[in-house]
Amino acid sequence: MKISIEKSDITQLEVDAIVNAANESLLGGGGVDGAIHRVAGPELLQECRKLNGCTTGEVKITKAYQLKAKHVIHTLGPIWKGGNYNEKQLLQNCYENCIRLAEKMKLESIAFPNISTGIYGFPKKEAAEIAIRTIQEEVKHLKSIHKIIFCVFDDENLSIYKKML
Ligand code: AR6
How far is the CA of 153 from the centre of ligand 1 (A)? Predict the structure, then answer.
């Protein structure tokens, strides 16, 4: 099992699945979601239209079209509202549901962006703690997946992850 940190654009990673930090419509948006849809092309949006959206902490999988990855696992992270609205548990659910779906689909590699830490305003340090703790717990049950990438995009998340992992 290899767990690594990579500072890169997630749309450029050649893995079985990249995770998208989407919104509840699953019809694209800004941030990493916008980047993924731009690179994947219009067929991704077409497939997403059939999915009936997503609720917080849940996941839906699609093909990845023009991306280098094979699949996109779309998840809806919680919007940070100060910490008393179950945000931490909901963020944990995102990581758990993504990795469990990837394992169920017998995928071997997966890359996560820093879900909710951009437009949705989740504090980066708390989010990283949840991401790392959740994945380290899940790893114990994995057979198929043997490569997990925390794909960071900004220097603040890079230094937080480097310190924690
Ligand atoms: N590759 C990897 N990480 C990226 C990329 C990229 N190309 N672009 C941004 N990030 P955000 P959220 C990082 O805002 O907070 C969308 O409009 C970014 O630096 O993309 O979950 C959706 O449609 C940050 O660390 O997602 C929703 O409406 C992380 O990805 C809303 O934003 C997440 O930032 C979701 O907000």
Answer: 9
2-7/109-112 β-pairing: unpaired
What length does the chain have?
A: 165
Measured from the CB, is residue 153 less than 6 Å from ligand 1? yes
Are 116 and 78 a contacting pair, CB within 8 Å? Answer: yes
At the top level of CATH, the class of 2-164 is alpha beta
Query: What ipTM describes this predicted complex?
Result: 0.99
Q: What is the residue extent of each domain of the chain?
A: 2-164
Q: What's the pLDDT tens digit per position in 51-61? A: 999 999 999 99
pTM of the predicted structure, to 2 decimals? 0.98
Pick from 60, 112, 153, 154 the residue to mutate for probing ligand 1's pocket: most ligand atoms within 8 Å of its CB. 153
Spatial distance between the Cα atoms of 141 and 134, rounded to a whole number of angstroms: 12
